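Issue: ligand-bound run for S-adenosylmethionine - logging full I/O for the record.

Environment: standard queue, default settings, no custom constraints.

Inputs:
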Amino acid sequence: MNLSLPRRVEPELLDDLAADDARAQRSRRDLRRIHRAMATLTILERALARGTQAFRPHTLLELGAGDGSLMLRLAQQRALHWPDVHVTLLDRLDLVTPQMLDGLRKTGWSPQAAAMDVFDWLASSDDSHFDIVIANLFMHHFSSDELTRLLTGIAARSRLFLCCEPRRAALPLVGSHLIGLLGAGPVTRLDAVSSVHAGFRAQELSALWPNPQDWELHEYSAGLFSHCFLAIRKPQQ
Ligand SMILES: C[S@@+](CC[C@H](N)C(=O)[O-])C[C@H]1O[C@@H](n2cnc3c(N)ncnc32)[C@H](O)[C@@H]1O
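Outputs:
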């Protein structure tokens, strides 16, 4: 079924809850369960394997990293192939616990948490570059104008960008209404529906990526509910 759903971005409930609010904590636990049900890690790993055939990454930035639990699972999978990665977990909220940082260190990676708004990071004088910038369930929070700014800033600071977002289509919309079946609480049940309406389809992110001639772009559906965008910088001639 190909419903033409116009993109609609509205604030999600989780975004307005304090980090230590019990409803927010429940919602973050729900997210971990949803990642397993949606095979998020497998989707990210496949995309990263495709994007890193020509190089081994040493620096990685996750935007909207939440509590870092998805990055920990990724590190546990990838650390054997990519030792000594310096990973930065950026989120508006300070959610990364010392235990999470310890878990990342145990994989051999060097973690750092940055509690800041992504637009403050873009506006900062810090011009650090990253081999990989990654975002999961993050880009859909932003309007087209914000996305244009964000993607332009990411492109200027990265060699590879990958995001995995809700797919704006009929099946994910039905799935989002049924997410309570996975045991998700009230906040996640409402946010899941909002996030599908704010999600992406077709080549919407590619259309906003700057200087596409310098990049290899892939934008595609992944699994039943996800939409991925992968940008790999072409080697300079
Ligand atoms: C839906 S959660 C996803 C968390 C994690 N990436 C995952 O997949 O489990 C979105 C995250 O983005 C963060 N966030 C939202 N707007 C942000 C902004 N403007 N700057 C930085 N982080 C932001 C929220 O605090 C939240 O942790």
